[in-house]
Amino acid sequence: MPTFNGLPLHPLVVHAVVVLLPLAVLGVTALAVRPALADRFGSLIVGVAALATVSIPVATSTGEDLEHRVGDPGAHAHLGDTLIWFAIPLLAVAVALVWTRRRARTGPAGRGALGVTLSVLALVVAAANLVQVYRVGDSGARAVWDRTPAVSTRGR
C-alpha cells in the first residue's frame, strides 16, 4: 500500500479531488453566467478542471490499495468509481465555454443559441458534480467513522 510519511496515500490524494473539483465547478459556473470571464480566467479554469479530472483515477487507485488493507468501504468504492464520469463532462463543458467565447469574439455578433444552451448545460453538469462529490465524500466519511468507536469524554 503506498504511503507518504507513514500515512496511507488515499486520504491525502482525495483532498486534491475535494478541493479541485469544487473549484472547477465554481469556475465553470462563473463562465456560464459571465462568459467574458473566459478571456481572463478561461485557461485557468480549464486547467483546474483538468487537474481535478486527472486526480480522480489516482484517488480511486490509492483507494483500492487501501481497500485491500482495511476492507470493503461499502458504497464509497462504487461512488468513487463513478466520479470520473461526472468530471469528464465538466472538463468538456469548460473547454467548450472557453472555445465558444473566443469564437464569439472573432465571429459575427454575440452569444447566440449555442452559447445559451452551453451555459445551461454547464450549470446542470456543475450541479451534478457538486452533488456527486458530496455523495462520495459523505460515504467515505461514513465508511471510516461509522466503523470507529466514538471516544466518550463524559465523566472526565
TrEMBL record:
Domain DUF2231: 6-147
Membrane-spanning parts: 12-32, 44-63, 83-100, 112-134
Keywords: Membrane, Transmembrane, Transmembrane helix
Taxonomy, superkingdom: Bacteria
InterPro entries assigned to the protein according to its UniProt record, in alphabetical order: DUF2231_TM
Protein name from the UniProt record: DUF2231 domain-containing protein
UniProt keyword Nucleus, yes or no: no
